[in-house]
Amino acid sequence: MGVVNSVKSFLYFWYLQYTLNTSIYMLEPLEQFLFNVFLVGFLSISAYTFYVFVPAHVVQIYELIFGLRQVPAAT
Amino acid sequence: GFVPLYQTWESFYSWYVYRRIQDCFCRPVSGVPGAKMVVIDRESNDHRWSFQYTGGHSTVLNFGSYNYLGFSQNSGPCAEEVEQTIKNYGVSVCGSRQELGYLDLHKQMDRLVADYLGVEDAYTVPMGFATNSMNIPSLVGKGCLILSDELNHASLILGCRLSGAKIKTFKHNCMKDLEKNLREAIVDKQPRTHRPWKKILIVVEGVYSMEGSIVKLPEVLRLKKKYKAYLYLDEAHSIGAIGPHGKGVVDYFGLNPRDVDIMMGTFTKSFGAVGGYIGGSQALVNHLRLYSHSAIYSSSMAPGVAQQIVSSMNIMLGRDGTREGEKRIQQLKWNTRYFRRRLQEMGFILYGNKDSPVVPLLMFMPSKIAKFSRESLNRGMGVVVVGFPATPMTKCRARFCLSASHTKEMLDEALQITSDIGDLLAIKYSKAEPPSYSENDVPLVEDS
Q1: pTM for the structure as a whole
Q2: What's the CA gap between B379 and B392, in Å, rounded?
Q3: pLDDT 10s digits, B370-385
Q4: For chain B, what is the mean pLDDT?
Q5: Where do transmembrane segments lie in this chain (chain A) (predicted)?
Q6: Integer Cα distance of B57 and B204 in angstroms
Q7: Which chain A positions have a beta carbon within 8 Å of B422's beta carbon?
């Protein structure tokens, strides 16, 4: 029970810090919900883009700088 | 085209920021706001567009009233004398100063204010705001220059604008900027004609109410004498609250009150009354009695209020035979040092001088002041929180006004509440070193 309470107060503290510092503390509950949905959606789409494209980019840059090709490929 | 229906920035601020945290401002109180006050509970069902009373009252610690010496009481020697005076003189004077409104009570009050300040004579006005805004126009006019601090109160700004003189602001409490402006004014003179200015008036406040800073009076006096300007000192928050004998910022620095040309102050903060005064040389007060707007057009001070001022000043001067006045001054000083030291040790960012009883605690965002205000009301402490437009948008703060009627237990309770809320909101930003002053060098007057 003590662990659950301390986890709850930990989450409450950090959610409070998030709402205070982004100033959505002052907004009505509907507006808070919409803002949170937008933020979570934006973060998930950017996470997906990161996952799909970044490894390919990193490999390409590595081969460009340290690789064995004389001329950079135009792909 | 047409005038736009709404102003972009002001309407945005008032609809989308101020309206949403409106329950933190303008709270209804009932009864005497002394060391504790009674706040009437209200709730809002439609996101602060309107409020309903729940029917409950909460008694909270009062850190919002300007009650520096604790004269905000409805019992005690002041209240009894006021009751007697109202029975003798009635409730109102019903006349202006120059027409049947000058009672012997007003003469006694003017004399007492002059004795308290150490000046030749004084003139009182029944409204503190009007003391500034209606009397500066009768002292300076077109062809004069006013150098006013950039953080001056609205009443001073209004008075300066009404007078028609040219106004230049200098950086807050910055004596180098003031000297630079004085030198430029004397060399360049009036803008188009290059004739010399008729008068140069420096307008400063004793203690600034939003910052808690004390003006650097010895420097200002030195500059005033060097460049032959006049000084207007607004001691609204410092009279009674600062200085070893409670006589204001001139007393605090140990200077001669005859050096300051115009000493203005109000009775609202330390003496539990309303109204303001202007003290200075006999020639100045004679001129004001004839030419001031408030002497001609506004009714003079009500007898009950005048008696409250007389009673409280007699207590402060010690003329009633007790050491009550001295006790209150020392208690306020002790409270100020103790409260400020403990808050700084906890790690809050405070503004202001270590001796000023106005303690602004910085929380830089509007949502944090809303949370602070609500939490502290729930836990039993009432504070004033300020945001835009009284302060810059990014420097919102909570302001504690200490009082001689706060006991050490009340201060400890308030400090505990503040510390708890500070941990919850994570506003203990300060990385400064711990304070070097303490309250131990303030001797308290014991009850005999």
Answers
A1: 0.90
A2: 28
A3: 999 999 999 999 999 9
A4: 92
A5: 33-54
A6: 40
A7: none
Of B366, B424, B425, the CB nearest to A26: B366
Give which of B301, B315, B288, B316 is closest to B106, Cα–Cα: B301
> Which residue from A13, A20, A27 is facing B371, i.e. has the nearest CB?
A20
Residues of B in Cβ contact (< 8 Å) with A19: 367
Q: Taking CB atoms and an 8 Å cutoff, what residues of chain A touch B47?
A: 28
For A27-36, B73-82, B408-417, B436-445, which range has the lowest pLDDT when averaged over its residues? B436-445
Helix pair angle (B303-317, B324-346), 10° resolution? 80
Kindly state the tokens that stand for B54. 């729940």
| CA dist., res. A75 & res. B360, Å (int) | 61
pLDDT in the model for residue A70: 59
pLDDT band for position B185 (cuts 50, 70, 90): very high
Closest CA to B56 of B46, B45, B42: B42
| Token duo for residue B164 | 């028609």
Give, in order, the Cα–Cα distances in Å from B234 to each of A14, A46, B206.
45, 58, 6
Q: Confidence class of residue A75 from pLDDT cuts 50, 70 and 90?
A: low
Average pLDDT over residues B30-44: 92
Inter-chain touch A20–B424, beta carbons under 8 Å: no
Asked if residue B448 has pLDDT above 60, the reply is: no
Report the residue of A15, A22, A26 to disrupt the B interface, i.e. the one with the largest count of B CBs within 10 Å.
Answer: A26
Q: What distance in Å separates residue A41's CA from the closest CA in chain B?
A: 25
Considering only CB atoms, A23 lies closest to which of B47, B366, B426, namely B366
Cβ contacts of A26 on chain B, cutoff 8 Å: 17, 20-21, 366-367, 370
- So where are chain A's domains? 2-66
- Indicate the pLDDT class of residue B173, thresholds 50, 70 and 90: very high
Report phi then psi at B32, rounded to 5.
-80, 125
ipTM: 0.81
A70 at interface of B, judged by CB pairs closer than 8 A: no
